[in-house]
Amino acid sequence: MSGAATPLKVGLSTTTIEPALTGGRFDGIGVFTRALLDHLPGAGVDVVPLSFAPPGGTQKLSAGRALPLSFPVATLGDMLLPSGAYLDVSRALPAGANGGKTRLDLFHSTDYRIVRMDCPVVATLHDALPISHPQWCNPKWRRLKNWLQIRAARKAQHVIASSHYSVRELVEFFGVDERKISVLYHGVRAEWFDAPAPAARDATLAQHGLQAGYYLFVGTLQPRKNLERLLDAYLSLPPVLRAARQLVIVGAPGWRSAELVQRLKAARERGENVIWLDRMTDDEQLRHLYAGAGAFMFPSLHEGFGLPLLEAFASGVPVACAHATSLPEVAQGAALEFDPLSVGDIAAAMTTLARDDGARARLIAAGRVRALELTWDQAARRTVDVYRQVLAA
């Protein structure tokens, strides 16, 4: 229905995928933003990518046009100016056919960078982690950042959450009105369902010293990802199993990861079958790494959604994940769940995925079905439905 209606002109926040700010590395929010940028046009939207300028000016922008003000300046204006003031987004847009202003129907913020604008604002808020679990976040400027995020969350005309678990957090910790929240699951790209060419996959594995069949984790190294316990569980496995299956950690170092990095390096120096790949920005090579895995392990203590689960499901890899926060909701029984606080439970899941062929086959089949239910095309169509509901209100 939405595809047959008049196309909407929607500004999409692309700040999270600006190379000048990310170094080319996308986190989950960046993957989400890129997916919307690619798939919203197919759902009947004229997408206008817009970014808050990074330090040093607009010449560094490449993902989107520069918004009229930087985020700090726009936020300051929100705080000091009367409630009727707003950011005139039209200044960032090319002139219309008759030289007049071009207007957006709506602006979609893909993270907490939300300010009042000259059009309705929809915001996707992924979690309330800095407030719900401050011990897992960088303490620098924490109080100020939390205060700003709470204020920002309440400015949006409508909020999109990526899971029902996230709704509970947004209501409790951000004070968002539950009546203006919609739950829209993320998706997975179509290419994840296609097995890579064996020669290309094997070349990638050889490049990184990998042997097919390893345990794989993908994500930033940070406390909530619970990688210390995953490493402990792996090291507790029988030597014959560790010799047969490597533990492969793919992810850049994040806040408070120095001790974990040292442990990973020390394990490698002792001859343990542990591989850490900290620079993986090539999407095709990442698909090769999933395709070469024997099992995907996701022990995270907190996720607003957990995109790597879908990538593993679509890749035909059996998955074990933490029974925590949004992960059971996303997996819907397609993953072997474990207690993330128990090293023994994690190790038992690793053993099952290595030795129980029947369980592996069931999980692979269930994962593929679950991934097919959650594609970015579907997510884009449902997002457009939310846009139209907001505009019709």
From TrEMBL:
The keyword Transferase applies. GO terms for biological process: lipopolysaccharide biosynthetic process. The keyword Ion transport does not apply. It comes from the Bacteria. Keywords: Glycosyltransferase, Transferase. Coiled coil: none annotated. Its EC number is 2.4.1.21. Residues 214-368 form the Glycosyl transferase family domain. GO terms for molecular function: alpha-1,4-glucan glucosyltransferase (ADP-glucose donor) activity. It holds the Pfam family Glycos_transf_1. Residues 27-191 form the Glycosyltransferase subfamily 4-like N-terminal domain. Gene3D superfamilies: Glycogen Phosphorylase B (3.40.50.2000). This is Capsular glucan synthase. It comes from Duganella phyllosphaerae.
